[in-house]
Amino acid sequence: xxxxxxxxxxxxxxxxxxxLRLWLAVRAIVAGIEKFAVTEMTQRPLLDETGAPDPSGAIxxxxxxxxxxxxxxxxxxxxxxxxxxxxxxxxxxLEPFAACLGWALIVLGAMLLFGLFTRxxxxxxxxxxxxxxIGLILLNQNDGVAWLGIHVGLIALALYLARYNVLAFxxxx
Amino acid sequence: xxxxxxxKAGVWSRRDFLRAAAGTGAAxxxxxxxxxxxxxxxxxxxxxxxxxxxxxxxxxxAVLKIENVRFxxxxxxxxxxxxxxxxxxxxxxxxxxxxxxxxxxxxxEKDLDAVxxxxxxxxxxxxxxxxxxxxxxxxxxxxxxxxxxxxxxMVQTMRETGKLLQIGHQRRSNPxxxxxxxxxxxxxxxGRVTAANAQWNRAAAADLSWPKxxxxxxxxxxxxxxxxxxQFRNWRWFKKYGGGPLSDLGAHQIDIFNWFFDGPxxxxxxGGGNDYYPNHEWFDNAMVIYEYQTADGPARAxxxxxxxTSAGGGYFExxxxxxxxxxISENPKLTALYREAHAPSWDEFVAQxxxxxxxxxxTSRSDEETxxxxxxTAALAAYELPxxxxxxxxxxxxxxxxxxxxxxxxxxxxxxxxxxxEYAVFKAIEAVYAEKMIRIDPEETIA
Lengths: 173, 447
Hints:
The complex is a heterodimer of chains A (173) and B (447). Chain A is mainly alpha-helical and 173 residues long. Chain A folds into 2 domains: 11-36 and 72-164; 37-70, no CATH class. Helix content of chain A is 56%, strand content 10%. Chain A has helices at residues 11-34, 77-84, 91-114, 118-138, 142-161; strands spanning 37-45, 59-67. In chain A, strands 1-2 form a two-stranded antiparallel sheet. Chain B has 447 residues and is α/β, with parallel strands linked by helices. Chain B folds into 2 domains: 6-171, Rossmann fold (3-Layer(aba) Sandwich), CATH 3.40.50.720; 172-445, Dihydrodipicolinate Reductase, domain 2. Chain B has helices spanning 14-24, 26-29, 33-42, 54-63, 79-91, 102-108, 124-133, 148-161, 175-185, 218-223, 229-233, 244-261, 347-351, 365-370, 395-405, 415-434; strands at 6-7, 10-11, 45-50, 69-75, 97-99, 114-117, 137-140, 165-167, 193-201, 267-273, 285-294, 297-306, 315-321, 324-328, 336-339, 381-383, 387-388, 438-439. The radius of gyration of chain B is 24 Å and the shape is globular. The model of chain B is unreliable at 1-12 and 21-40 (pLDDT under 50). At the A-B interface, strand 2 of A face helix 9 and strand 17 of B.
């Protein structure tokens, strides 16, 4: 009697991939949006326990996060300056890379979220993380290298599980 | 509606209006645009400044930033300083009449509301008393006087005349200090406070000089009590005119001890000497230890003033409690709060924006390796006081004075309150020379 092949359970890997896809998408989108945020000190009246202005008339400085187009910064200024001093990095690429980084993360994250060209999107995201890793290796920021390494590992895992992709278009890519 | 322009007796003077507005409620008067226009000039305070030296100029600059206050007269015995003041005020569209004798100014200026006194200390009491008796409110720089008797006479004249006398301990109106005292210290943030510390260190400096062509005649100098031009310019170093560094610098900070501990000290021990400058009468450096009896128990306060080295340390006051320490200064960069490891959480104060958690400073492993004493307390969590002052540091105190004249505020440092602090300064100076601990009866600090 012929043995029937073991039933293929695809639900688990499919859900695993969807969760991973969602995580990587959110990670990229939020990281991109954060590039439009700055934390500023704003001044406002100090309030007393009742919510009324303090009798001293004191003004306090409060840290406030503000999102705006004009706040865009692809790379933190300190990091950009350090990277610009690295002889192995082509300086002419640094500015365009920084200018595109935030937008690229948002677009690729959104594509991943909606399942558009999933494999290509994952590969491009991985490429971005690899490019960032090169910079951090040159700056000897090993914590950051390890941090990005985790991202690259997750992308590799996602590419491996991509065969279980659903809710995507086109499935092939 | 109240007629702003006249009374039954005739035309209202501006001072009548101010009195009425303060006493009966300006809000009723200010309800129509017409009245508002009238009040704009009527609400304006007309003031004089006596003493146009360095401190006088600081006050002048601060007043120029305050609305509805106008200089109408300035006075200084030194023509050089007087001319400077007149020209600066003219540039600011404030035409003033200049006087070399404050008594002549009081005789001629009949529409003044207040006088700011920023002369050398030994003239504070005579000028302030004369101004108060002339019916004027007075803002007088600290120290109130170079003698206890002089300071006491100012309090008495203030009481006799019923006029306002604010003393220039400007930290009392600084919102950073007020918030630190009222919203942090009094709320028990520091726990039981057992010690305080304050210092003001300044680098060694040459005596002040003057343009030779601006030298005053001996006759003029003697008329106003000065030995010579050098002593006129460097009066802070001579006993006849002032109280030395403990008085010039220490008075501000010893006042903070008394303000926070809510009373004068019960004893003082001090040392000091002429360690460096050969030509000064007052000591260059002094170190003082006060003992206070607070509501929570005894506390000791150490005060140091150095005029021979800045020691990289700046100026600040520090209150040290079981649960934390408040280090505060007019310079925000020198202000910080430290929470002891065992202390209750300060999160509620952070949530109310009374404290701010700064970015953690970088630590390195080498710090740990080089620590030689295992008994050293671990580094404390440091917090910032987020209150900012977007004004000159004297401005809030002057504003408080002007608002008090309008009946809109109480003085933050009336002379009787200042006397209690300054008495502690006089006693510290006495202790330096007595070379022994001096007991202070709280009763004797009441003028």
